[in-house]
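hiii so my PI (J.) wants the whole complex modelled not just the main chain, which honestly fair. so below is everything: two entries, each one labled with what it is. i double checked the lines twice but i was tired so who knows lol
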Amino acid sequence: MTGAGLELRRVRKSFDDRPVLDDISLVVRPGEFVSIVGPSGAGKSTILNLLTGRLTPDGGEMLHDGVPLASGSYRFAFMPQRDALLPWLRIIDNTTLGLEVAGMKRKAARARVAPLFAEFGLDGFERHFPAQLSGGMRQRAALLRTVVQGKAVLLVDEPFGALDALTRTQMQQWLAAMWMRHRWTVLLITHDVREAALLSDRVYVLSARPARIARTIPVWLPHPRPAAGSPEVATVEAEILNTLFNPEF
Amino acid sequence: MWKAYAFLSALARALGHAGPALLSVVTLIVGWEAYVHFSGISPTVLPAPSRVLAQAYEHRQTLAGHGVATLQATAFGFASSLLAAFLFSLLVDFFPQLRRALFPVFIITQTLPLIAIAPLIVLWFGFGLMPKIVLVALITFFPMLVALVQGYAATDRDIEALLASMGASRWRIFVTARLPSSLPYFFAGLRISITYAVVGAIFSEYAGAARGLGIYILNAKNNFRPDLVLAAVLVSSTLTLALFGATVLIQRAAMPWTRLSEESR
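here's the output for the full assembly
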């Protein structure tokens, strides 16, 4: 039953007797790209807050590599909605933030991050402030800050929601390429059905609140998937949409 | 060379911004001067601006001495007020229940009429620097505290969630996120409070002091010298404007990211 990676079993959570998560079970194996798609207000953020340790579940189990998650263990790297770059820190200091909070000396943290700037398309922007960067560049800096922490799982919350449609598509293609190269273990929370279909190995579709897993949709298509005009991706999209609109389907 | 050019163009831009304000001030002074000349009003009632300036120049050494005393009272009073406001803002941020205990008391301090409280403070603390410091602090403490507390509350929730996910302590989150978030609020409060601070210092001197613009104004008034009263007002206004300008410069230096983002837009 147990295995490597992240596993949620029958997790429940209520706020003041108002159930938000009814029964959430899901698995993210090492190197997998898994998405959770749900209607707004379904409890996607609650799942993230449970995984980042801000909340504790009322029932069920949360396991990582077969071991229950202790509170205060901070095993996962979190990439919040929008980019959450600190406006008063230069890009280099934003990207080393996680390492420095974990106790690494600034110099060592910079040495760890510096070689990655070129790969993330941020070369020459180390000394810039976030406000001087475009939306896409800010997202790449936020992802760099997330992956450089070297955590086992990346928790990514609606990363491209604030971008314009064209930039969003470009960023999705870029993320797919980066993921293919590094094979991070990713749990993506999104309400962008196309994004989930393009990037994921498996999609969990949530029901409306209180949330259950309405359906698990494996996506067997090879990566990377074309940004436009693939009938296979369109089929997956349709499947996700059908589940969202007809949860009992 | 390039630097000199950039400086000159910045100066020209600043003058362009200041132009309308300068024009209205000049118009006011010219109108006042003309009125005094053509109405034949006595200088012991309304002195002309030219007379005020001439008297200010003649008494420049006395005025400077009193001005320095007022500046001292303002600086010490405002510095202790800032320190106290920061310490209490920390307390309130880390122990929110304290807010309900302390804020009503602070609000009451803001309702005290200056005119009643200033003589009492002089009575309690004497004619030296202390009563001025107390009065300036009393006036400026609460606005600064409110500015800081509001600034902390304006912190982006996503940033706090991010830092928490990294395992940051409450103190680390405060230093890394909440404190920098409060800076715009802090400086907005600072700009308003610094003008109150000068007024407060002068008022406490007016209520009783050995030195300072307040006591100078009182003496000039009692000697029927409105020209000297206005000369002291000129000094205090200049002082306030200089302090105001200093806060703007400090803000620019302390928050370079806001300036850069304006330039790139």
